């Protein structure tokens, strides 16, 4: 939920390390000493401004496309000539990255650009769609049939266009090195699945055609949303507030999202800093809302104490569990959030039940448990003790049609199917869910 750790520990670390509203000038300056040819044209990075030509300008244009497309900026022409369109895009990028907006590519802008082009970031201000560009990477216009083992500028063109065509928060960008290895082959297959093409990993005319189309305009291949579950939800925490940015909950609701789970507390001593604003604001925007607690299990027999902190924190926001729009409270039961992937050191069925019982008594609602079958199998002996509780299950595999349920359970209520969804009104990726039921079912669960 909003960047929990069951399947997203690495994503959390990346989110913490990469400020999605842009590196500061100081951060850019620290990395300025290392020039990186992200697009594979040249690592020479002289100061550039309008009128410049050559490989450095070409590298800049290609990197600008990679850096700004995640924020819905249509790519500019990568033609090696620093003209008005390039200058405008440099200024757009400088605003995104929190740099001086002068349209000049100096050391600080280059450093930030290298980072943004190689790793997915989003701007505070979104771009607008414009006419597609034909030359967006600048390596070659030739489109030979390519497969694993190929190398050269045609492969660089392929890798660059794959990075522009595949939604970067779901598909980490490839290194543009001109070597058609296993990683490039896998990415081609993913593109082919998206485009309903024969998924053979070979880049022939049909694959090139789709790749050129998607990479040159404001479009992406994204993992498929689970079919058959029309009601959408999302999970939020402090990680959806990069740089202190607020969530525009009205925009979230207008995008079609029906429910939200908002992080409330962790363990015995942490209350999420955005609970007090996000929970009421999401409810006021018309979403069904639930607060959730991350169980730590780092000390023995703390379930009741963790419940007490959660109860006090969510009551302070006005949550009662009984108002129209209030979903049941949610208990986040998963592996330790220290990056180790270990089971909670003192996590037990009894301690879990202590939390569940106390919260159920406080709010008169049966809590929902957020977990995963493999966690209960590995960490709690495949217990069936939680069979009566509704489940929010995390499983990010695109190869399944629904998440596997724990022993003793027969169904699930919410499925968190990705940790990298992009929602209007939120400046960072969020986890996304679908609801297992109808709108009437959701309304009943939310007292509406």
Head-to-tail CA distance between termini: 23 Å
Supply the number of helical segments.
14
Helical fraction: 25-40%
Q: Under CATH, the topology of the largest domain is which?
A: TIM Barrel
Biggest pleated-sheet summary: 8 strands, mixed, barrel
Radius of gyration: 24 Å
H/E element order: HHHHHHHHEHEEHEHEHEHEEEH
Supply the CATH superfamily name of the largest domain.
Answer: Glycosidases
* Unreliably modeled segments: 1-33
How many structural units, i.e. domains? 3
pLDDT averaged over residues: 89
Strands in their spatial order, largest beta sheet = 1-2-4-5-6-7-8-9
How much strand content do the residues show?
5-15%
CATH architecture of the largest domain: Alpha-Beta Barrel
Structural class: alpha/beta
Instruction: Write down the CATH class of the largest domain.
Output: Alpha Beta
How many individual β-strands? 9
- The global form is elongated
């Amino acid at each position: 939920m909003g960047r929990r750790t069951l399947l997203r520990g690495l994503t959390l670390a990346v989110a913490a390390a990469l400020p999605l509203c842009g590196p500061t000038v100081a951060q850019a300056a620290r990395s300025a000493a290392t020039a990186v040819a992200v697009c594979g044209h040249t690592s020479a990075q002289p100061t550039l401004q309008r009128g410049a030509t050559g490989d450095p300008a070409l590298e800049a244009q290609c990197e600008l496309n990679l850096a700004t497309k995640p924020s819905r900026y249509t790519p500019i022409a990568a033609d090696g000539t620093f003209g008005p369109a390039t200058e405008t895009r440099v200024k757009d990028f400088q605003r995104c990255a929190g740099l001086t907006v002068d349209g000049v590519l100096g050391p600080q802008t280059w450093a930030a650009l290298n980072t943004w082009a190689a790793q997915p970031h989003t701007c505070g201000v979104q771009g607008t769609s414009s006419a597609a560009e034909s030359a967006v990477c600048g390596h070659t216009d030739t489109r030979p049939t390519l497969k694993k083992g190929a190398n050269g500028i045609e492969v660089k063109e392929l890798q660059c266009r794959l990075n522009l065509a595949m939604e970067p928060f779901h598909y980490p960008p490839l290194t543009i090195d001109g070597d058609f290895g296993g990683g490039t082959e896998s990415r081609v297959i993913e593109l082919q699945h998206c485009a309903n093409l024969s998924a053979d990993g070979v880049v022939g005319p049909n694959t090139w055609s789709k790749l050129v189309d998607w990479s040159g305009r404001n479009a992406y291949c994204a993992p498929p949303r689970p079919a058959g579950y029309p009601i959408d939800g999302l999970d939020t925490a402090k990680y959806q507030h990069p740089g202190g940015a607020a969530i525009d909950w009205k925009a979230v609701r207008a995008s079609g999202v029906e429910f939200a789970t908002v992080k409330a507390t962790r363990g015995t001593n942490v209350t999420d800093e955005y609970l007090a604003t996000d929970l009421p604001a999401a409810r006021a925007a018309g979403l069904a809302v639930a607060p959730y607690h991350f169980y730590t299990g780092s000390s023995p027999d703390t379930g009741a104490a963790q419940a007490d902190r959660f109860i006090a924190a969510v009551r302070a926001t006005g949550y009662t569990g009984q108002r129209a729009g209030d979903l049941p409270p949610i208990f986040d039961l998963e592996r330790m959030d220290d990056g180790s992937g270990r089971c909670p050191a003192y996590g037990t069925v009894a301690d879990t039940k202590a939390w569940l019982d106390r919260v159920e008594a406080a709010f008169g609602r049966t809590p929902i448990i957020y977990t995963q079958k493999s966690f209960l199998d590995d960490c709690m002996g495949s217990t069936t003790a939680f069979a009566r509780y509704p489940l929010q299950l995390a499983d990010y595999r695109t190869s399944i049609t629904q998440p596997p349920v724990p022993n003793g359970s027969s169904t699930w209520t919410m499925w968190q199917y990705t940790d990298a969804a992009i929602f209007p009104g939120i400046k960072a990726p969020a986890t996304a869910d679908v609801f297992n039921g109808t709108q009437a079912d959701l309304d009943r669960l939310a007292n509406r």
